Amino acid sequence: MAENTPPQQNGPQFALQRIYTKDISFETPNSPAIFTEKWEPGVNVDINSANAQLQEGVYEVVLTVTVTTKVGEKTAYLAEVQQAGIFLLSGLGEQEMGGMLNAYCPNMLFPFAREVIADLVSKGSFPQLLLAPINFDALYAQHMQQQQAAAAESKEQPVH
């Protein structure tokens, strides 16, 4: 008897479905006075990623990049973008899936987030800001090492 099921794809499957800007924020709380200050900025970049399964084999990955630039104690600007993508992923083991969702996909999203941040800063009339490339593979590996160390430490703690 023939089954009416679609043919199974062998091996891992990956496809990018869509990249989009989910949220944008740009604030210049001390303008216009900040433009009279000597421009010796301190720049802090915070990067986070999150993912959620939308349906079987379909995931949304959201990369959040927040840039806070101060001149002295005054905030010159705060720029934040949530760059998101929808990815098809299947046929991967748990470890490979973690690497794809937490390193490979954010790496694909970063150039788009970087461009949005640069555009926001420029339109805010501030000097150009180009974020340096980020090694998401190394960040993910570091995160996994920290989790393993924390798990090992919690096993060593005696239960009272």
Overview of the molecule:
The protein has a domain at 18-127: SecB-like (Bacterial Protein-export protein SecB, Roll). It is globular. The termini are far apart. Strands 1-4-3-2 form a four-stranded antiparallel sheet. Strand 2 and strand 3 (58-71) form a beta hairpin. It has two helices and four strands; from the N terminus they run ββββαα. The chain is 32% helix and 38% strand. The longest helix is centred in the C-terminal third of the chain and has 30 residues, at 94-123. With 160 residues, the protein is of the alpha+beta class.
Shape descriptor: globular
- Give helix and strand order, one letter per element, not per position: EEEEHH
Would you give the CATH topology of the domain at 18-127? Bacterial Protein-export protein SecB
Percent strand: 35-45%
Per CATH, the superfamily of the domain at 18-127 is SecB-like
CATH architecture title of the domain at 18-127? Roll
Helix content: 25-40%
Query: Under the CATH scheme, which class of the domain at 18-127?
Result: Alpha Beta
Strand order of the largest sheet: 1-4-3-2
What is the radius of gyration computed over CA atoms, rounded to a whole number of angstroms? 21 Å
Record field, number of beta strands: 4
Structural class call reads alpha+beta
Distance from N terminus to C terminus (CA atoms, Å) equals 61 Å
Uncertain parts: none
Q: Biggest β-sheet: count, sense, barrel?
A: 4 strands, antiparallel
How do you describe this structure in short?
This protein is α+β, with helices and mostly antiparallel strands. The protein has 2 helices and 4 strands; from the N terminus they run E-E-E-E-H-H. Helix content is 32%, strand content 38%.
